[in-house]
Write a structure and sequence with these properties.
Blueprint lengths: L2 H9 L3 E5 L13 H5 L4 E8 L4 H17 L4 E3 L3 H9 L3 E8 L10 H7 L2 E5 L21 H13 L2 E3 L5 H10 L4 E2 L17 H9 L4 E3 L3 H4 L6 H15 L4 E3 L12 H6 L23 H10 L4 H19 L6
Parallel strand pairs: 1-2, 2-4, 3-4, 4-5, 5-6, 6-7, 8-9
Helix pairs in contact: 10-12
């Protein structure tokens, strides 16, 4: 990477819209230092997904929140986008939480506000399979339910980013029609580049961009290609989205996790239907790109003709734009 690009990277806001760390109260969050060392400014950390019950999500959220607050010398729990700028000035790492799927609400719309008050700034609607709010990408995709429509409106009202990753095709279009704030795919790749059910169509990408939203690059090998996490493959996905809708709609959502000292096999084996056969989830040694690859990736973007403005947008300013709009909420 050139000296100029090193300076761009060093001065940029670097925003990773979703970490794939397995949500569990026993996880040692010192693993977040891997993002800090890589120069990431802000990270959205997962505290639950639909495979868990809502009590497990709350338990994980409580533990993570306590840990972040107890480590205020290094970390800042974000309330709004101004806190991210403050964290950068103080050389601290900014964090907020996200939840993958609406099972965490237990059918109660009031839980949206509770999660928001505890630091959740982003939720997606269905984790692969259908739930009471929405359809999943590995299911028959029932679309957004009446409850799901209420949830979109409540998320807009309290100030949460609406995330369409993992949801079904029709569901995402319903969500984008319902939301009065920009909508994102925090960690989804274009299906035209790699045909996987977790990836998204050109129609979804265009609809997301039309809301002012952003598509975050997922670093998992089975979503990038045939377990291929090379810079060249990531660049193909980014260039495709940028050509389709513009570089102002690309960002980072690596879905990355360092190894955790927690046995995740029990919950994964308990519900194999969330990761159906024929979708490469049984690939041996699934590879995963992460924040350490960012210098090489932005060098490749520069070589491909992306200017400094586009690179800064990809690194974080595009997702920051969405957050500034979404996190301010809507009038009651």
């Amino acid at each position: 990477m050139s000296i100029h690009l090193q300076q761009v990277y060093r001065q940029a806001l670097v925003w990773d819209a979703h970490a794939g760390v397995f949500p569990n109260p026993q996880v040692d969050l010192n693993l977040l230092d891997e993002w800090r060392v890589a120069g990431v400014s802000y990270l959205s950390l997962n505290v639950g997904f639909d495979v868990m019950d809502w009590q497990e999500t709350l338990s994980t959220l409580a533990a993570y929140r306590r840990w972040v607050l107890d480590n205020g010398d290094r970390f800042v729990l974000v309330n709004d986008s101004r806190d991210i700028e403050g964290a950068r000035r103080d050389d601290k790492f900014a964090l907020s939480f996200d939840i993958e799927g609406m099972n965490a609400l237990n059918g109660d719309i009031n839980m949206v506000g509770v999660y928001h008050a505890l630091g959740v700034r982003q939720m997606l609607f269905a984790y692969n399979l259908n739930n009471t709010a929405a359809g999943g990408c590995h299911d028959d995709d029932s679309g957004l339910t009446d409850f799901g429509r209420q949830v979109v409106r409540e998320m807009n009202r309290v100030g949460m980013i609406v995330d369409c990753s993992h949801a079904g095709h029709q569901t995402t279009l319903d969500i984008m029609h319902e939301s009065d704030k920009p909508v994102v795919f925090t960690h989804s790749n274009p299906r035209a580049v790699w045909d996987h059910q977790r990836n998204i169509s050109d129609q979804q990408i265009r609809a997301c961009a039309a809301t002012g939203g952003v598509i975050g690059l997922n670093g998992m090998g089975i979503f990038l290609g045939d377990n291929d996490v090379s810079i060249a493959t990531m660049l193909r996905h980014l260039r495709y989205v940028a050509k389709l809708v513009g570089s102002e709609h690309i960002g980072i959502g690596f879905d990355y996790s360092p190894e955790v000292d927690v046995d995740i096999g029990v919950i994964l084996r308990s519900r194999p239907d969330y990761w159906p056969t024929g979708q490469q989830y049984d690939t041996h040694g699934i590879k995963h790109a992460g924040p350490a690859q960012l210098p090489g990736l932005i060098a490749a973007l520069a070589d491909a003709g992306f200017d400094d403005t586009a690179i800064r947008g990809f690194l974080g300013e595009n997702f920051q734009r969405v957050a500034r709009s979404a996190w301010q909420g809507s009038p009651a």
